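Example record

Each entry pairs one chain with its bound ligand, 4'-deoxy-4'-aminopyridoxal-5'-phosphate.
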Amino acid sequence: MIPVPVRDDLRRLEGYHSPQVDVRIRLNTNESPAEPPAAWRDAFAAELSRVAWNRYPDRSATALREAIAAIHGVSPDQVFVANGSNEVLQTLLLAYAGPGRTVATFEPTYQMHGQIARVTGATVVETSRRDDFTLDLDASIDAIESARPMVTFLCSPNNPTGLVEPEANVRAVLHAVPGLLVVDEAYAQFAPWSAMSLVDDSRPLVVTRTFSKTWSMAAARLGYLVGPTWLVAELDKVVLPYHLDAAKQIGGRLAIRFTDEMEERVATIVAERNRIAACFDLLPIDHVPSGANFILFRPRERAGRDVWQALLERGVLVRDCSSWPRLDDCLRVTVGTAEENTVFLDALAEVV
Ligand code: PMP
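Structure tokens for the complex follow.
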């Protein structure tokens, strides 16, 4: 049979890949090394046993949105929830990007911003960051003024660099955009600053978050955004009916009861991140200051790809970014448990 041709504009696109290898220590996908608390598991199981499985779930996820709104001090009408922050981004881009519209990114950054935008049929305008991965504010604002994007992305802390975007940059970009500014804050709780406090109905600003990292719930696939009420109302037109299943609504709502435990896990990871960075300083390694649960680094004396391979041979998988544009020889390590990090650091010291 002759395959049915895919849309012309998709033929050139490649999917997003995050290769998984069966290995002892996996520090490649920025997950939490710790499970959620046992008390959360018990409460979740108890509520799951009472779900009316023959009925559709609450279509507007009221209780979950109320719980999320309460942690950020906003109204539930400013909260939109979906299956992972990737689906939040997809819904945003379906509503605000699409054919004939432009989306701006500052590279290197999270690849899915450009990828999803292209899938919606939008044109993506990429502006390079400086060599140290900080935002070149003048070049970025020039790019915004000439491309007139309907959606502009910042990512803070930025994946894969870990850099936190200074508040002054976020405000300057927000001032310059003719459309929406989306700040992807998948890693926000690891960082000293968040754009959440700038969200207001009078500003075209959206902040996206996820339960996959700090909340230790990557398996649940739950993310959300906080934005203006008028934007959240538009997203309801785009998203599928009953997109968020009952189990996820319960799991997320219950997770928020364990915010203190989440913050303790975050503090442990931040301390471990700082220990890894201090060890890098003693090795022939350059690294980027990180406000996230991972660190981007570049061995000075061996090719990045060779170091990745040598680590793998020692049972440690990190993310190989060395072939990505603007990231020659770079690798990215997710902060694991103290034991995992020690194995990684010992292996790294041997191979660099
Ligand atoms: N944004 C950023 C910056 C990420 O790194 C990730 C996960 N890799 C996501 C969004 C998507 O997270 P999820 O869909 O698991 O919420």
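Residues 144 and 177 are 6 Å apart (CA to CA).
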